[in-house]
Design brief:
The chain is mainly α. It has one domain (3-136): N-utilizing Substance Protein B Homolog, Chain A, CATH 1.10.940.10. The chain contains 7 helices and no strands. Helix 1 packs across helix 3 (41-65), helix 4 (76-91) runs antiparallel to helix 5 and helix 5 (97-111) runs antiparallel to helix 6 (116-129).
Length: 159
């Protein structure tokens, strides 16, 4: 599996999680092992953990930059693409922003709504401008992000 295929798979995982309203950290292996990820396994696990940990923050940015739209009202495919690319832009310093945006636009053309590619490109361009505020956050070990995602899920369950 190459990186483009891994992105597409993770967009589908994000979509499935959103449709099922299931953001349980315990489902990581179940969801990710449905495919042979090969050398993209670390990338996919990192994206999974980033979504669990930072979904609220990512959605706030999407809400802020999508004038007139809230993440909760967007097409599920569009929000999955936006979350994936925003996660890459904000929390994965090794991925060039332009690559992430271009790949997101391609995914939007394939899976999204008719207006999706332009809409997604505009939101991601705005999110890319705030990336310096997040420098260093991707340095966190995946295990730590995984543990924090478990803690956040536990707290949500207590409320």
């Amino acid at each position: 599996m190459n990186r483009t295929q891994a992105r597409e798979w993770m967009m589908q995982v994000y979509y499935q999680m959103d449709v099922n309203k299931d953001f349980d950290p315990e489902d990581e292996d179940k969801l990710l092992m449905k495919k042979n990820l090969g050398d993209q396994e670390d990338y996919c696990r990192a994206l999974y953990r980033i979504l669990l940990k930072y979904r609220g923050q990512i959605d706030r940015y999407i809400d802020e930059y999508s004038i007139g739209w809230k993440a909760s009202r967007m097409a599920k495919t569009d929000i999955a693409v936006l979350r994936l690319s925003a996660a890459e832009i904000l929390y994965m310093d090794d991925i060039p922003t332009a690559v992430s945006i271009n790949e997101a636009v391609d995914l939007a053309k394939k899976y999204g709504t008719e207006e999706g590619p332009r809409f997604i490109n505009g939101i991601l361009a705005k999110i890319a401008k705030i990336k310096p505020e997040h420098s260093g956050t991707s340095e966190e070990a995946p295990e730590e992000a995984h543990e924090e995602a478990h803690e956040a899920a536990d707290q949500e369950g207590e409320e």
